[in-house]
Amino acid sequence: MTASQVDPRVSQTLHPTGLRRPSGTEPHRPLAIVARNVGMVYQAGGEEFQALSHINLEVPEGSIQLLMGPSGSGKTTLLSILAGILTPSSGSVHLLGQEITHLSRHRLSQFRLHNIGFIFQGFNLFPALTALENVELAFQVKGINRRDAREQSLMLLDQVGLADKTRSFPKQLSGGQKQRVAIARALAGDPSLIMADEPTAALDSQSGHAVIELLRNLAKERDRTVLMVTHDSRIMDVADRVLHLEDGMLKAA
Ligand SMILES: Nc1ncnc2c1ncn2[C@@H]1O[C@H](COP(=O)(O)OP(=O)(O)OP(=O)(O)O)[C@@H](O)[C@H]1O
Ligand SMILES: [Mg+2]
After folding, report:
1. Tens of pLDDT along 110-121?
2. For residue 208, how far is its CA from the centre of ligand 2 (angstroms)?
3. For a substitution probing ligand 1, which of 55, 76, 232 has the most ligand atoms within 8 Å of its CB?
């Protein structure tokens, strides 16, 4: 083969972002998340606090990656930056081939809405809405009609084991049940990226297992990418990689 007859598959090793993937990774797996030299400095009471330094990360589509580390090591900060909720002080983030750190607020929120399901550490449910309405709202803001929103919300609540709690308000639910409503809501509209901050922390072992199984199926059968902060050693069995954060820096596993 001459230089002008380059096998077209070779060019596919270049991701749409133009970033060359490292050797040794699966050649046909596009990268869902790429962080380049990300740093985060918080300003608090006139003081600066370096929460993250020199974060470099590549996450292939269809993988489950865990983010672990001590309290205060920067896990929520990093997850929020990778989800476009926080803007880093330095560095860049590409999601699904799109550079997000320079998008306008409007385009960024549209991007998040259509591509990312985020499960927050504190659930963030609307107290005045029932479990079903909390999930339905997530469909409605994505422009999905009421009928489909209801049908798919009921299906998701059933998948997380809450078919009998659809009419309950958050204050009538246990911590683990609230967490499962938050998970159902994050999965509304079938986002490509699922980012979760301790999604199984408040769950008993049975419902924790159901949630892990759900996330595993999404990654392995539907090619969704899952990045989650966890202390849950059960999840380590299904993870493709465990990332360790210490003092705002990623440590080699
Ligand atoms: N808005 C903020 N302003 C100033 N400092 C902050 C802010 N948010 C977080 N920090 C600091 O940044 C560091 C990282 O916080 P972060 O919430 O990312 O930690 P974490 O690893 O998620 O911890 P945990 O396991 O307790 O949830 C902590 O020292 C925290 O005090
Ligand atoms: Mg946290």
Report:
1. 999 999 999 887
2. 19
3. 76
Residue 103 · residue 152 · CB < 8 Å:
no
Query: Are 55 and 30 spatial neighbours (Cβ–Cβ below 8 Å)?
Result: no
11 within a domain of the structure (yes/no) = no
- Residue 160 belongs to what domain range? 62-88+100-251
Looking only at the bridges linking them, the beta strands covering 241-246 and 249-251 are antiparallel
The pTM score is: 0.85
Return the ligand 1 atom nearest residue 44 CA: 4
Take atom 27 of ligand 1 and give the residue whose Cα is closest. Answer: 71
| Contacts with 90 (C-beta within 8 Å, 6 or more apart), sequence order | 37, 38, 39
Q: How many domains does the chain have?
A: 1
| Any domain includes 212 | yes
Q: Who wins on pLDDT, 194 or 20?
A: 194
Tens digits of per-residue pLDDT, 178-219? 989 999 999 999 999 999 998 888 788 887 888 888 888 889
- Enter the DSSP assignment of 169: -
Tokens 């049975």 correspond to: 206
| Order of strands across the sheet that contains 47-60 | 47-60, 31-44, 90-95, 98-99
For 20-69, give the secondary structure using H, E and C.
Answer: ECCCCCCCCCCEEEEEEEEEEEEEECCEEEEEEEEEEEEEECCCEEEEEC
